[in-house]
Amino acid sequence: MANFLFWNVNKKPVIPLLGALCHEHSVDVLVLAECPASEVELLGRLNVDSEGTFFVPPLPWDGALIKVVSRFPTACMVPFGSLGRANVLRLMPPVDTVFAVKRPSSWDRRAADA
After folding, report:
1. Can the peptide bond before residue 73 be classed as cis, meaning omega within 30 degrees of 0?
2. In this model, does residue 114 exceed pLDDT 50?
3. Geometric angle at alpha carbon 32, from 81 and 108, rounded to 5°
4. How far is CA 97 from CA 11, 19, 37, in A?
5. CA distance 42 to 59
6. Of the four listed, 40, 44, 51, 77, which is most buried by Cβ atoms within 10 Å?
7. Is the confidence at residue 110, as pLDDT, over 60?
8. Where are the beta strands (DSSP E) in 1-114?
9. Exposure pattern of 77-98 as b/e (b: 16+ CB <10 Å)?
């Protein structure tokens, strides 16, 4: 079974804590909301402090407000659809799990303005 960790970091600088946290709890999929760090910073910290290698899967959103990283190969995580303000991703074998990531309401306002 995959271990998931969701954390709304509220734009705080938590990158130094993430490697140890993910290692201690054997996190396989990390979902961060309101994370100001770049994917490069995030992967740099996770891949130094944790066992295994984290990847950024292709996502159906820009990743500015919600970031997803996974130990599973990028081909294992695919967009599955959307339900209202939630995007649904499927984590394919070896795990075969479906999970949803809710979009903040500010995304709806930005889409309406476009």
Report:
1. no
2. no
3. 50
4. 28, 24, 27
5. 16
6. 77
7. no
8. 4-8, 29-33, 66-70, 77-83, 86-91, 97-102
9. beebeeeeeebebebbeeeebe
Residue 39's SS3 state is helix
Q: Reduce the DSSP state of residue 53 to 3 states and report it.
A: coil
Q: How many residues does the chain have?
A: 114
For residue 23 the two structure tokens come to: 């290692």
Structure tokens at 6: 């969701």
Instruction: Note the pLDDT tens digit of each residue in 13-69.
Output: 888 888 888 888 888 889 998 888 888 888 888 888 556 688 888 776 666 678 888
pLDDT more than 90, % of the chain: 2
Tokens found for residue 72: 């599973």
Q: In Å, how far are 2, 20, 54, 58 from 70, measured between CA atoms?
A: 10, 15, 5, 11
Asked whether 77 and 96 are in contact (CB, 8 A), the reply is: no
**What is the reported pLDDT for 88?**
77
Phi/psi zone of residue 81: left (φ > 0), alpha (ψ -120 to 50 degrees), beta? left
Q: Retrieve residue 20's tokens.
A: 């140890």
> What global pTM score does this model have?
0.74
